[in-house]
Amino acid sequence: MYIKKIVFDKRADSGVTFYLHDQKTAMEHIEERPFVLVIPGGGYSFCSEREAELIALSFVAKGYHAGVLRYHVGEHRDFERSLEDAKQVLAEIRKIDAKYKVAQDQIAVIGFSAGGHLAAAMSTLLEEKPNLCILGYPAILSSFAEVMKIKAPSLDTCVTKETPPTFLFSTFEDNVVPIENSLLYLSALEEHDVPFESHIFQKGRHGLSLGTKWFGASPEMIDLRFARWLKLVCEWLELNWEQENQPVNQTVNGPMEKDVLELPLEQLLEDRTNQAILFQEFPKLAEKSYYKILRRFSLNQLQQFSPEVFSTARIAKVHEQIKQSQRVGGKK
User: Fold this and answer.
1) Which pLDDT score, from 0 to 100, does residue 24 have?
2) What integer pLDDT is reported at residue 29 of this predicted model?
3) CB of 14 closer than 8 Å to CB of 85
4) If we measure between CA atoms, which residue out of 225, 207, 226, 227 comes closest to residue 217?
5) Nearby residues of 57 by Cβ (< 8 Å), 6 or more positions away
6) Spatial separation of the C-alpha atoms in residues 307 and 322, rounded to whole Å
7) Phi and psi for 53 in degrees, rounded to 5?
8) What is the DSSP letter of 47?
9) CA dihedral defined by 254, 256, 260, 262, rounded to 10 degrees?
10) Is the Cβ–Cβ distance between 113 and 146 less than 8 Å?
11) What pLDDT digit, counting tens, does each position of 59-118 carry?
12) CB neighbours of 280 closer than 8 A, spacing ≥ 6?
């Protein structure tokens, strides 16, 4: 394993430490490895050692490259500077020597507590974002930012459709960061149709880290149910990265195209012309709650499930109008 430390601000002790797999002869068949960036918590007062190297090395043991970001904390705490640290570390990952075979389109960030706040900020506020985001008992709201003595917005209000898929784990009994922080962030992800997975364990204190006996600061910091998060996260990472690598169905002339009637509504409505046609014929589709119920269905399916609303005649009318608009627009 190759370990490299890069200092951003010597005075504030900010920077990154990389833990990179050497591509030994026995592993030459591995083309690229994903990278997991770890951001420890500590309320922007310090960087928790229990959420730093030991987390990174846990991911290294799973076969990933990893790194630990140490950002501006304590007397140097400054949210904008911390966010700049996060921006800089993404640039440093891009510059890692090609011989280490870092999969540049498979970069995940995992942050705990205040580190989760910074990870969520990376995923919402930065122009260049990580590909996947993992949040462990994260601080999200501006009210908690005040407690941490930083100036930052409520990050749930910063979520957009560009926010990367997210895995969030926490506990209902968290005695430091109210579970409201997680729930509001999850609600924002749902509102913007950002894929997510979440595990809210009923029991458990704040700051459990890995939750195992070798890393618990005291008996109440050992929770083997909570400790399952690492396995769940790794499964989720693979699920998303395997999905990214799925081949596109091909025809002789290029990617396979579905008939308009077979496309999910949400895909049809990405086109403004289609949107105008469908909203004209079915006004209730413009109502958010109604649309959310139906968005995964195709027009053919809606005709089968609700023929009294999506009648054959109305579907045929919409179909013809969409085809006409495609002809006018020069679409196939």
Assistant:
1) 72
2) 79
3) yes
4) 207
5) 19, 66
6) 20
7) -60, -40
8) -
9) 180
10) no
11) 999 999 999 999 999 999 999 999 999 999 999 999 999 999 999 999 999 999 999 999
12) none
What is this structure's pTM?
0.88
| Two tokens, residue 62 | 């799973």
Cβ proximity of 248 and 255 under 8 Å: yes
CB 24 within 8 A of CB 102: no
CATH superfamily membership of 2-244: Alpha/Beta hydrolase fold, catalytic domain (3.40.50.1820)
Helix axes 272-281, 312-328, angle to 10 degrees: 150
The pLDDT of residue 193 is above 70:
yes
Identity at 70, one-letter amino acid code: R
Whether pLDDT at 252 is above 90:
no
Helix, strand or coil, per DSSP, at residue 17: strand
The H or E element containing residue 121 is helix 114-125
pLDDT digits (tens, 9 = 90+) for 109-149: 999 999 999 999 999 999 999 999 999 999 999 999 999 99
Q: Which residue in this structure is represented by tokens 């690598």?
A: 245
